Amino acid sequence: MCLIIFAWKVIPGMPLILAANRDEFYARPAADAAWWEDHRQVFAGRDLQGGGTWLGVTRAGRFAALTNIRAPSERRPDAPSRGQLVADYLRGDLDPASYLRQITPRAQQYNGFNLLLGDRETMLWYSNRGAEDARNGQPLDYGVYGLSNALLDTPWPKVTRAKAQFASLLCQGAPEETFFEMLTDATRANDCRLPDTGVGLEKERMLSPIFIRSPDYGTRCSTVLRVPIIGEPVLTEHVVDPMAMQYSAEPATDKACKIPCKPRVAEAPQDPPLQGGEARQG
Fold first, then answer.
1. Is pLDDT at 248 greater than 60 in this prediction?
2. CA terminus-to-terminus distance, the chain
3. How far apart are CA 41 and CA 188, in angstroms?
4. Side-chain-side CA neighbours of residue 152 (13 Å)
5. Quick one: which of 134, 135, 141 has its CA closest to 7?
6. pLDDT for 245
7. Does the predicted TM-score (pTM) go above 0.85?
8. What is the pLDDT of residue 239?
9. 150 pLDDT higher than 70
10. What's the angle, vertex CA 62, arms to CA 61 and CA 68, rounded to 5?
């Protein structure tokens, strides 16, 4: 994932409500969210190149998600796939703290990452680049949080914009589709607000919206996840068809630019309390 906004223990009876966009090169193969044939309790998408996943949940309400840290000067091409960290947690039965203790000794083998690990009782954020943050590896207090390609709640424009919209929707008790509409906001940030992560100004501009569009890289899917205190989680995914998008190199910056949403509902998998396979075409 490249943007995750979530409310932890804010809504009574609903420990987790999350909205997220996964950004990736269009050419990188991936499978849509579904029940995994080799681990039937896991519902997640799958990175068909690295073998892991970016976000998933289990019937029991265990949850994990990951974003990369944007630091091109530190990237090692021989590092192991970070998506395996999410997949291994979902396939296992360790609680978040125990799993984190297991992976921490080898965390520096990976390129920079943020990892969210949770169940119905506890949510942990951990980054192998976040040693100076007191929250790193500790249970999160209740609240609304934002995570992109820097440390938790780093005030990048997309994070602050999405958190404000997300919190407003929560207060309104808004329906699920409005969270997906929020995730299609392609408004670019003004140059004066852009971070400097080492990728150059043009790429910073391209990467600044909640919903990213470019000829070869962008938002591949959007996800809304709800984990109730009682009952099974509900995960809904909208998959983007990049071939159907009209790409503009100069999107508006003074107003919200929305990607049209025309869902195509696919047949759900067996035992479908977790919903997936909806497709968004812009």
1. no
2. 20
3. 39
4. 25
5. 141
6. 63
7. yes
8. 96
9. yes
10. 130
Alpha carbon distance 99, 44 (integer Å)? 19
Give the phi and the psi of residue 246 in degrees, each rounded to 5.
-95, 110
Residues 6+ apart with CB under 8 A from 228: 13, 14, 15, 61
Predicted confidence at residue 246, as pLDDT, reads 52
CA-based nearest residue to 119, from 39, 60, 67, 65 = 60
What would the two tokens of residue 70 be?
């944007």
Mean pLDDT, range 244-261, rounded to an integer: 39
Average pLDDT, the chain: 89
Lowest mean pLDDT among 4-18, 38-52, 232-246: 232-246
C-alpha to C-alpha distance for 180 and 5, rounded to whole angstroms: 12
- Please state, in angstroms and as integers, the Cα–Cα distance from residue 155 to each residue in 148, 159, 208, following that order: 9, 6, 12
SS (H, E, C) 142-182: CEEEEECCCCCCCCCHHHHHHHHHHHHHHHHCCCHHHHHHH
Pairing of the two strands 14-25 and 3-11? antiparallel
Beta bridge partners of 183: none
Q: Is the pLDDT confidence value at 232 over 70?
A: yes
Nearest to 18 by CA among 150, 138, 163: 163
pLDDT recorded at residue 242: 77
Residue 102 region by backbone torsions, left for phi larger than 0, else alpha for psi between -120 and 50, else beta: alpha
C-alpha 186/C-alpha 177 separation (Å) is: 17
Q: Beta 278-280 vs 234-240: how paired, if at all? A: parallel
Q: Is 109 left (phi over 0), alpha (psi -120 to 50) or beta?
A: alpha
Q: 3-state class of 215 per DSSP? A: coil
At position 3, the amino acid (one-letter code) is L
Amino acid identity, position 203: K
Q: What is the pLDDT of residues 111-121, one digit of tens each?
A: 999 999 999 99
